[in-house]
Amino acid sequence: MERRRIPEEWVTETINSPAQTVEGYGRRNVAQKKYMVKDRQYLLRVVYEGREKVNVVVTAYLTSQVERYWKGEEDEDSI
Predict the structure, then answer these.
(1) What is the pLDDT of residues 3-61, one digit of tens each?
(2) Is the overall model pTM greater than 0.70, yes or no?
(3) Helix (H) or strand (E) run with residue 20 in it
(4) First-to-final CA distance of the chain
(5) 3-state secondary structure at position 22
(6) What does the alpha-carbon distance between residue 79 and residue 71 come to, in Å, rounded to a whole number?
(7) Is the pLDDT of residue 76 over 70?
(8) Contact between 32 and 10 (Cβ < 8 Å)
(9) DSSP characters for 30-64?
(10) Structure letter (DSSP) for residue 10
């Protein structure tokens, strides 16, 4: 997250209030939420594992390829 300059607050918010959650590989979950960065829409994808009362973040990244990863209809849940 630090290397990719992703605020920890965004990751926490995305896990706690995802706009969408999809299944990842190996029983991992991927929480997704859209954010505006410099007038451009990005999708924050947070890959995590749910373990006894705790979510362990495996990785998090921003992508401009929203259409590639977004499942279903568009929503208005952007910041």
Answers:
(1) 899 999 999 999 999 999 999 998 899 999 999 999 999 999 999 998 888 889 999 99
(2) yes
(3) strand 20-23
(4) 19
(5) strand
(6) 19
(7) no
(8) no
(9) EEEEEEEETTEEEEEEEEEEEETTEEEEEEEEEES
(10) H
* 65: amino acid identity, one letter: Q
Residue 60, judged by CB atoms within 10 A of its CB (0-12, 13-18, 19+), counts as buried
Tokens 């849940």 belong to 77
In b/e form, how buried is each residue of 11-38, taking b as 16+ CB within 10 angstroms?
A: bebbbeebbbbeebeeeebbbbbbbeee
Query: Helix, strand, or coil here: 7?
Result: coil
In the DSSP assignment, the letter for residue 67 is H
Two tokens, residue 27? 């029983």
